[in-house]
Amino acid sequence: MTEGLRTVAVAACGLAIGFAWHAIRTSLIPPASPDRLVSELRLGQFAALLLTMTAGVYIGFAVGHEAQQGVGFDVALAVGFLIVAASTLVRDPRHALTVLALAFAAHAVLDIAHRPGWLPDAVAPRWYLIGCATYDVLIGALCYLPILRR
Question: Which of 3, 12, 35, 44 could cysteine-pair with 96, CB 3.0–4.6 Å?
């Protein structure tokens, strides 16, 4: 196991554990409580930061593979996810969490789209694409957990 893989895995696990703890704690607050709204707002802000971070990694991959055809599209998609994440900061928390859950699902689809060659397939290691798609599905489900528990 390389140092890069180990570091990414530890960071991703730490962030996922913290996010899961917050999502579960939020879903346990009674829906009519004002604390629930505040907790959903904070969860949405945390999710927006995670979406920006996971999508922004492709900008780094594009810089590392600048000569490869199609990396500009990856950068454009990353900026698109940044815009989606930023737009959720000014929305109702329930709507923001729903949008973020869908955005994470869309990002997982794009991760998988790198493998059959629909997007540049050599831009990221295979372990990263599979791991990131799994991570996106997990975080997206956790975004939607408080909405389901209403």
Answer: 44
Predicted TM-score (pTM) of this structure:
0.92
Domain membership of residue 121 as a residue range: 3-148
Q: Are 115 and 129 in contact (CB under 8 A)?
A: yes
Domain count, the chain: 1
Mean pLDDT of 34-63: 93
Q: At what angle do helices 3-28 and 126-148 cross, to 10 degrees?
A: 10
In the predicted structure, residue 115 carries a pLDDT above the cut 80: no
Residues 6+ apart with CB under 8 A from 119: 70, 73, 74, 110, 113
Across 108-126, average pLDDT: 81
